[in-house]
Amino acid sequence: MSKKTINRNIVAAINRIPYGEVSSYGEVAAAAGLPGRARLVAKTLSESSELNLPWYRVLRASGHIAFPQGTEQFNEQERLLQAEGVAVVRGRVKREKKIMDMDALLWAPD
DNA sequence: AATTTGACCCGTC
DNA sequence: AGACGGGCCAAAT
């Protein structure tokens, strides 16, 4: 029996975020059928550290990492994201479309 | 039981 | 860019 109010819908929604992509608290909440409850997602994430969720793929709506810059969690999240090929600059994640454009520019044949 | 806190969001200025 | 205000709600004080 569950002792805590961990929302399985939210956990499932987080697990659904594809490799190399990111989402936001609001999007996760909406995907879990709980629109407007981004804070509940944050709460769930803070409680679910025992589960191995891709927590690092969840950012603020602005595209920023939700932790203060310089903290251990911030650094680890940035590292994990970059390990998946996500570009992070000063705590902010760049759009994948932009990354694809850059990739195309760099790798385009003559 | 009331108030504060928190890995937040959104429209508006 | 940032600031302000309202919304959201479980857990902790």
The coarse overall form would be: globular
Helix content class: 40-55%
Instruction: Output the strand order for the largest sheet.
Output: 1-2
| Helix-strand sequence | HEHHEHEEH
Relative strand content: 5-15%
- Which residue ranges are poorly predicted, with pLDDT under 50 across at least 5 consecutive positions? none
Terminal Cα separation, in Å?
A: 61 Å
Give me the Rg, rounded: 15 Å
Q: Compute the average pLDDT.
A: 84
Structural class: mainly alpha
The description of the largest β-sheet is: 2 strands, parallel
Please render the helix and strand layout as text.
Layout: H1 8-15, E1 23-24, H2 25-31, H3 38-47, E2 58-59, H4 72-83, E3 88-89, E4 92-93, H5 96-107
Parallel strand pairs: 1-2
Antiparallel strand pairs: 3-4
The protein binds a DNA duplex (13 and 13 nucleotides) through helix 2, helix 3 and strand 2.
Can you put this structure into words, describing what you see?
With 110 residues, the chain is mainly α. It has helices at 8-15, 25-31, 38-47, 72-83, 96-107; strands at 23-24, 58-59, 88-89, 92-93. The strands form two sheets. The protein has a two-stranded parallel ribbon. The radius of gyration is 15 Å and the shape is globular. The chain binds a DNA duplex (13 and 13 nucleotides) through residues 4-5, 24-26, 29, 36-43, 45-47, 55, 58-62, 65-67, 73, 77.
